[in-house]
Amino acid sequence: MLGSSPSMTPRPGRFGKLKIGVAACALAVVAATTALTLYIRSLPPLDLSAAADRSTVVLDREGRLLRPFLTTDGRWKLTVTSDDVDPRYLAMLKAYEDRRFDSHPGIDPLGLLRAAGQMLRHGRVVSGGSTLTMQVARLLEPRDERDLAAKLRQAVRAVELERHLSKTEILDLYLNLAPFGGNLEGVRAASFAYFGKEPKRLSTAEAALLVALPQSPETRRPDRFAEAARKARARVLARIERAGIATAGEVIAARDEEIPTARRPFPTLSPHVAEQVVAEAPAQRVHRLSLDARLQKSLEGLARERSLGLAPQVSIAILAVDNETGAVRASVGGVDYFAAERAGALDLTRALRSPGSALKPFIYALAFDNGIAHPETMLEDRPARYGSYVPENFDMTFQGMVSARKALQLSLNVPTVELLSALGPQRFLSRLRDAGITVALPKEGGAPGLAVGLGGLGITLQDLTRAYVGLARGGEMAPLRFREEPSSSGTPPLHLVEPVAAWYVADTLLGAPPPLNAVPGRIAYKTGTSYGYRDAWAVGFDRKHTIGVWVGRADNGAVPGLVGRVVAAPILFDAFARLGIDPRPFPQPADAIVASTNHLPPPLRHLRQDVPKTVAAIATPALKLAFPPDGARIDLSADSLDGQGQLNLKAAGGAPPFTWLVDGTPVTAPLRRREAAWQPPGKGFMRISVVDGTGASESVSVRLQ
């Protein structure tokens, strides 16, 4: 037998080696694929809850931010979508972070190769090769490790995200989750904190800075490391210039733009209403209100400006309402929410205050509605007494006979009380309450007196303004609505008065004399001043809107000189100037009577007298002759008499009119006042008597010497 020889041993050829190599590679691929599959299966389901944990925000009727709230972990996370961001910012972001974002499947092989090559050349990590999708995966599952295992996990999650979400949804996740330093999360929060604006209106420099910050948010924070932020912004600007997103001139101008070195406060418009709606629905993350952010900001500025001329403790509340819907367009609860001296945290649109004369239009409206009077009905503005109640006009004068129109325009107290007496205070309050207006009496449950017509009760600015909205709506009431969604209660509307009476009042108030330097006849309005100068009011309306203004101290303290016409009315007219006045006239009802006093039906020419104006005499204090006292010796020298040589006679109690007699002979005509002047004829004993309107009398004997 021939022995075997080494040269005879078969050797694999090149083809065989290739087959072995292919088999080994296949086995390696299979092994890697199996390992990757097992790894993927070992991962828990992707948790997107981090994207759902957002700040509660309160928005205006058009989606503008009124006030955001911190999350439970103390971070600002304002929801945003790619539609809410400047398109140039998105273009810069993709150009700087992920040029092939719109085409890759979550990972970018070219980007990974580039990153690996840079690491080999420089001996360090120059760029990570992460796509925006991988960054979203890292933000959804934050980990401290930055090794290959972490990169592998991000790559797997990125592919998973791409399979289940659209590119727009992934981009939106990045815009919401990207860190910008401190407690800022998301581009919208960063835009407000650094620039005080929505990300829809970013400049080139601002957009470039927001692109640069998430790469290293804590070391590039412009409020702490302005120079580092400037350099990072410059690198972004250089990249976008090469990409053709910005011109050379735009880049030069952007480099010269200042870096913000401090964070701005987040919006706090209408903080009282914002807190209220969030407290009502704490689980709701987005609250859309009926307010108009621009008007709200303007009226808050107006309140601050006007407060500069007032005492530090005085605050201002303003409410603006859409007449057609009852939607509140602006609600200023106070001058400064953070001012302890003004009790800024209190919503003063909800505070019970005395309205002064601001309720008078509703007395006239109900009198017109009940056929008791007409705007041209003549009323008496003379001294009057209703039991122990003696109303007086604000200026302590009397006009004599005046029309109801003039009495309301001049805000005369005595004719108003005369109307309320004919109407009945209980009936008046019942009509207000039946219309949904809440009023509080000093002693709840007691019988209301005539003083309620001049402010002897409590009402809020919200309720008072709502009542005026009812007048603007032709007597039909509408609930105030703070949310944008209309209520669907299905409850029939309440009515305060009929359209004719409401038009009479609106037409009358349109002729009220305006404050100094204001144009007359543009808004129907009324002012009010409470007893002791504690509250100043002004409420007015046109066809479209009603605005209510209150000025006073939160602690109900007196403020010398706090008069509605002087303090509150100018604020009202300025508020309407900022809102815009509807020039259309109030529509006149077909059955309204437009006539002078002489052409009215006879019962309406003067106030009906079928309702007694004077309370029963049993409620009247007893008549007493106060001066001179019985048995007095009166020196007829100049010191004892007035400048005209007359002796002043005074009575107390009783009911007007008063007639004075000396020795049984009348010396004066019947007077409503309790004082009279008498010319003594000479020295001697005389008997002075006074007789009141009920026939009661009182006499004294005096000696003139």
Number of strands: 20
What can be said about the biggest beta sheet?
Answer: 5 strands, antiparallel
Q: Which percent range fits the helix content?
A: 25-40%
Approximate strand percentage: 5-15%
- Total of helices: 21
Uncertain segments of ≥5 residues (pLDDT<50)?
1-7, 610-619
Radius of gyration of CA atoms, rounded to a whole number: 41 Å
Strand order of the largest sheet: 7-6-12-11-10
Task: Characterize the overall form.
Answer: elongated
Find the structural class using helix and strand composition: alpha+beta
How far do the termini sit from each other? Answer: 183 Å
Average pLDDT over all residues:
87
Transmembrane segments: 20-40
Protein name: peptidoglycan glycosyltransferase
Pathway: Cell wall biogenesis; peptidoglycan biosynthesis
EC number: 2.4.99.28
Describe this structure in words.
The chain is α+β, with helices and mostly antiparallel strands. The strands form six sheets. Strands 7-6-12-11-10 form a five-stranded antiparallel sheet, with helices on both faces. α14 (360-369) crosses α19. The longest helix is centred in the first third of the chain and has 29 residues, at 14-42. The protein is elongated and about 160 Å long. The N and C termini lie far apart (183 Å). Mean pLDDT is 87; it is low at 1-7 and 610-619. The chain crosses the membrane at residues 20-40. Residues 73-240 form the Glycosyl transferase family domain. Residues 617-701 form the Penicillin-binding C-terminal domain. Pathway: Cell wall biogenesis; peptidoglycan biosynthesis. One of its GO terms (molecular function) is penicillin binding.
